[in-house]
Amino acid sequence: GRAGAPGAASHGGVRSRRGPRPVALAARTGAGFANIYMCRHGTTTWNVEKRWQGETDTELAEKGVAQAQATADLLAERLPQGVRYILCSDLKRARATAEIYAKRFGVEVIVEPRLREPSLGRFEGMTKDKIFSEFADLFARLGKLPQEERMRTAYFDGLEPPLDTSTRAEAAASRAASLLGGDGGAPTQVALLVTHSKVLEAVLAAVFGKFYEGVETTPCAFFQWRFSTKEGVPHELGEVHNIEFYDHVVEQ
Q1: Is the terminal CB of the chain with fewer CB neighbours within 10 Å at N or C?
Q2: What is the rounded distance in angstroms from the CA atom of residue 70 to the CA atom of residue 66?
Q3: Looking at 41, 196, 235, 241, which residue is catalytic?
Q4: pTM for this one?
């Protein structure tokens, strides 16, 4: 189920992105929850140029490889119990990031197309500055929509709205939870989902009630998703790394 109403009401202002919660949080993931970390890929060649990517299949930049290696070490420090499964988008930048994590944890990567970045239409290949200057009216209009309506509204006709992006990502997370459960469901077992910024933003808005236009992630950002496997029990948001939440449109 979706996270409860308290999360939905908490999108105002800025939240801490760097202060880690104690690693013991993972150990407190008890029966009825799967311990999942949703991760953004490392910096790509287009990220360096501040270009929006969408479904364009870009490569990790050298900086992105170093970021993923450092984040793999960070995750290993936070998760001394290790990682049991890694699922990733079928786009190269996510797969390359996932392979670095897989090498660190000694597991295989499972390609999960439902973690793919949505198409961004005419925005793909455009620089951030050009997008927000040429389409200022569009972002102003979207930013004023009620959250529920915004989540059902795509940038352009024919593209996937954020709610649908979250729905398929939730299905991928459910698959990961089932894999963990098939291993006996030990509460400390962990699965990583390696995906993209728009997928993280959609899930944080749809599942955890964050203001969609105000979610800001950086490459290799991640959050802990205490994925509820019991009907009627909401998901819980745990540790958040390199993600900020605002109550206004963020240009990124």
Answers
A1: N
A2: 6
A3: 41
A4: 0.88
